[in-house]
């Protein structure tokens, strides 16, 4: 095997995708620098978790096996992170809390080869940042990029500094300034018509109520499905917090200019006043929270600049709606596949196009299925809802939940993005998925 060609790599964006990529590339000795416009990278303490600033950090996040296997391999200290696990995924009816169906999650490691964790996003970011710095990554804040010359390649920050590298990886999110420059086409994210309420409630408040206590003591991921909205709740930080993401039809509270607004508890309680008693109680317990506009993008024509010296990664090229909890996981898979492509192909352009060839079909499929779930989970009561509830119980290909079918769940969760079958496009031709 030929020796690995180590390169000077510049990553724009120190979010989860950028940090994952830095860790993956450091495994092979690449010289990696990350620049980000943020003024601070600070781990949020448990004492401050209910401030509006912290809520904007994204609150809870799920780390499924296709993500955790990579993080553990790259040296991220998940063992000492405060975290929770889910014994099952529980779909319930909005009006009375009755069970629609349950998917067991108790044998995740035995089935998929890696754990499934529920964590605070700030904790995960802090662990990734710590691992990256220990691995020798240079991470710099207050570095806002104002222009690119991808033919060099070069990024210019607002202080006038020119950052040059062999490869520039643009991991700057759904509002990526690099994307239209790289693809050659102007774009704007698609508004889905939904907003996400991101809520954190102290676990002790649930434990004080016998009707809510088992949401902490018997941890599960609970999804209340109702007309025009659904709520997903699960404990994080060993039950210190209960995380809720409400995805609901927008009431016009966000705009093209303002994607995140502060929520109103009175409006929250009013909106869900007809839902089952646990939901009403959780709404009353909700402190300050934020609402986020939910947007995505159509499948891009390319993730790679024609120069073969720059590429997109994560939400910059395939932003995921929260309905399948795969956003961070797919960014980690990008990082793993990019690493493998750079290892195998001496020519940088060949490596980047191989990364795109392997990743684009899988990421685009998950992105599309994620958007379908927006409709599936928000069906109004009636014949269609009754039919949905019945087929949700089936371990079969017509189950509308993507991972409600064992073979698709294996395709999603058991995937190892650093062990790819290139003849099958990184698992794209798996029988259970090819006919979707």
Automatic annotation (TrEMBL):
Pfam families: FAD_binding_3. SUPFAM superfamilies: FAD-linked reductases, C-terminal domain (SSF54373), FAD/NAD(P)-binding domain (SSF51905). Residues 8-365 form the FAD-binding domain. Signal peptide: none annotated. InterPro entries: FAD-bd (IPR002938), FAD-dep_Monooxygenase_BioMet (IPR050493), FAD/NAD-bd_sf (IPR036188). Keywords: FAD, Flavoprotein, Monooxygenase, Oxidoreductase. It comes from the Eukaryota. One of its GO terms (molecular function) is monooxygenase activity. Belongs to the paxM FAD-dependent monooxygenase family. This is FAD-binding domain-containing protein. It comes from Penicilliopsis zonata CBS 506.65. The lineage of its organism: Eukaryota, Fungi, Dikarya, Ascomycota, Pezizomycotina.
